[in-house]
Write a structure and sequence with these properties.
single chain; 9% strand; disordered C terminus; Rossmann fold; 8 helices; 45% helix; 174 residues; mainly alpha
């Protein structure tokens, strides 16, 4: 719901034509946390010690809690989404509104990052609420190149404070 509201706000502020339809796609939903949803890292250790151990052994990239997804699962659905986007919107500008793990997994795919590289970016800090990650097409390289990441300048221009405190859910979810 928040992502849709952000897209609508962008359109209403003149960021795109007023008659442009916002396309919803279930593949852009945030990572499913299953039985760990709503738990902090401490809560997982206390209430789900077996899952805490699995995550420690497998790592956050591959750990899939019961009823949830791993980062790899998110990456699989995003690869399918990108195939659809390139089929239907080739040569057009596209804006995708998403949350923490989806933004990071998109970077992993688009920048051909390693597991270690994307986990280091994640460890460096949360994706800020309403931040912008922007790519441009690099014709010489024949692919998208990162232009900006986690930029909150539009919020700052409007005098809107961005989130500075990490979401307690994100600490456990990643």
């Amino acid at each position: 719901m928040r992502a849709v509201q952000t897209g609508e706000g962008f359109r209403e502020a003149g960021g795109c034509p007023a008659d442009l339809r916002i396309c919803l796609d279930e593949r852009l939903r945030e990572k499913e946390f299953g039985i760990l949803d709503g738990l902090t890292t401490v809560g997982i250790r206390e209430l789900q010690p077996e899952q805490a151990n699995f995550r420690k052994v497998l790592g956050k990239f591959y750990h899939r809690p019961p009823g949830g997804e791993s980062w790899v699962d998110v990456i699989f659905r995003l690869r399918a989404l990108l195939d659809t986007v390139s089929l239907h919107y080739a040569g057009k500008r596209v804006m995708i509104v998403a949350h923490q793990v989806v933004v990071l997994c998109m970077r992993y795919i688009l920048e051909n990052l390693s597991e270690a590289e994307i986990l280091a970016i994640d460890a460096d800090g949360d994706v800020a609420n309403c931040s912008v990650t922007q790519y441009r097409f690099d014709a010489q390289a024949g692919r998208l190149a990162l232009e900006q990441y986690n930029i909150v300048a539009p919020l700052e221009r409007e005098g809107t404070p961005s989130t500075h405190e990490p979401d307690p859910m994100i600490a456990a979810r990643g």
